[in-house]
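Need the bound structure for WQD, inputs here:
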Amino acid sequence: MQNKIIVTGGCGYIGSHTVIELIENNYNVVIIDDLSNSSEETLERILKITGTKPTFANVDLKDEMATKAVFKKHKDAKAIINFAAHKAVGESVKNPLMYYNNNLCSLINVLSAQIENNIEGFIFSSSATVYGTPETLPITEKNETQRPSSAYGNSKKIAEEIIDDVIKASNNFQAISLRYFNPIGAHESGLIGELPSGIPNNLMPYITQTAAGIREKLMVFGNDYPTKDGTPIRDYIHVVDLAKAHVLAVKRIINKEQDMPYEIFNLGTGNGFSVLDVINSFEKVTNSKLNYEIVERRPGDVPQLYAATNLAKEKLGWSANKTLDEMVKSSWDWEQKYRKEQSSKESGSAF
Ligand code: WQD
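Answer from helper R.:
Posting the output first, comments after.
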């Protein structure tokens, strides 16, 4: 009998990659997604890759009644992975209430519905943004979380605190928060990948859209940081490596292997790469020159962020293994395949 897992935001970038890994590990997946930043077409792509089309419910998790109804229908689920959230840092600074309302009200409705239906396992999609500007590197899970500078990051920090309080108030509820560093890359099939709506905030999709001719040039936000080449350093992690960690977290929580009811793990590679490292990698793997210009710093950026990875290794038995070149190449393969598909759709030939 397959264990059922509810995946909120499962049509999104990290969610869809995780759904594929769950299906390939013989889980029965139910996706709940409001499609506000994703497309139902992703379900067809998951079917094409795995041979299985996950059950799908188009529900706005801010709607308490609708959330309760869908959880009641799937109360035999063993665990929930909660990806559903808005995640554009810049947008959240301009529109904080939309972020607190969407990210936290949906979380509260999910937690209430899951407790009401005695679904015991909860896995939360968190972010290294909760650490703010770290005093020490690499960042361990013991690092003090600061007040993130964006409403997006703060919604993740507050969410973790809400989960902690819910755990303390219940006696059979287990939770794991996974703090992602910088997810990039795409599935080897080239059928799913990152598809930011509008102008990309993040480095990798901006690079691939520049190379694809959709953006005129990449603006490199500052080269006067205290780093080896002056550009900021981040811990880029392949989205499939990230997805695999979620499957291990599901196993841990279902098999009640946790050391405590609420655990937190960093998901990074432990390696820091600068913006120029990523650009150089892209130019190498694509054998092309990227059009970029060094401009002013972006407000809120920190000089360096990279993870201590030993806790996830020890407790989840997980570590990332894709190299930067492999991550960058997979992002480019996805961009090329997607644009080709779109242009053949526009010209009328099938996908
Ligand atoms: C990486 C580096 C930029 C774009 C954010 C969120 C984090 C997570 C990942 C959701 C920085 C530089 C970027 C560009 C550039 N999001 N850059 N030109 O800011 O580390 O993290 O995205 O979970 O929570 O905080 O990622 O890709 O935006 O930036 O020079 O056009 O690339 O300055 O140094 P970031 P990023």
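Comments: The domain at 4-345 is CATH 3.40.50.720 (Rossmann fold). The chain has a mean pLDDT of 96.
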